[in-house]
Amino acid sequence: MLGLDREQAISVAAFVLLLLVSVSVMGMSLQARADAVRESSERREMLSRLEAKLRVNAGRPTAAPPAAFLDASTPGLASAQLQSYLGQLAGDKNASLVSSGGEATKRDDTPDTVRVQATLDMNLQSLRAVLYQLESGTPYVFVDALSVQPINAAAGRSVEDPLLRTTLSLRALWRRGAP
Q1: What is the DSSP letter of 165?
Q2: Does the pLDDT value for residue 178 go beyond 60?
Q3: What are phi and psi of 36, to 5 degrees?
Q4: N or C terminus: fewer CB in 10 A for the chain?
Q5: What single-letter DSSP state applies at residue 123?
Q6: Helix/strand number for the chain, H first, E second
Q7: Which residues sit opposite 118 in a β-bridge?
Q8: Radius of gyration over alpha carbons of the chain, in Å?
Q9: DSSP labels for 49-103?
Q10: Verdict on whether the full-model pTM lies above 0.85
Q11: pLDDT of 72-84, one tens digit each?
Q12: Bridge partners of 147?
């Protein structure tokens, strides 16, 4: 019978250990490659679904509904329509419209942009309601600037629900309507 001396046994054990490490590294490498292939195929499938969805939606118009725009024949009438809408909204929300007027369009504005600056007196709850309605209702109105000051600030005492003087810079889009 062949007898292994101690050096041969250590060499055989080291060889077997090296063989096991090599096989496990190769197995992990193959597993990582399989995971990458699976993930790549999932991404390709997701991409093809998105492309199909885009092809389906390509025929649909993505324009805003007609109610989103002010309908007037001139920019001046559109500005007056926006001021009227703001006055009605202020009245519905227990606010008083102090003043409003058209603002000059800015250089980077599109020709269908109407600007209005308005000053209102209202409490905080009414301010929240007016801002929410302006930003979420129709016609689409964008609040570009907002300035809020308490009206009775000179008294120096704290009021639970103070009256606020609010200045809004508003912007809306209009479409040329019938004259």
Answers
A1: E
A2: no
A3: -65, -40
A4: N
A5: -
A6: 3, 5
A7: 100, 168
A8: 35
A9: HHHHHHHHHTTS--PPPGGGSEEESSHHHHHHHHHHHHHHHHHHTT-EEEEEEE-
A10: no
A11: 888 888 888 888 8
A12: 167
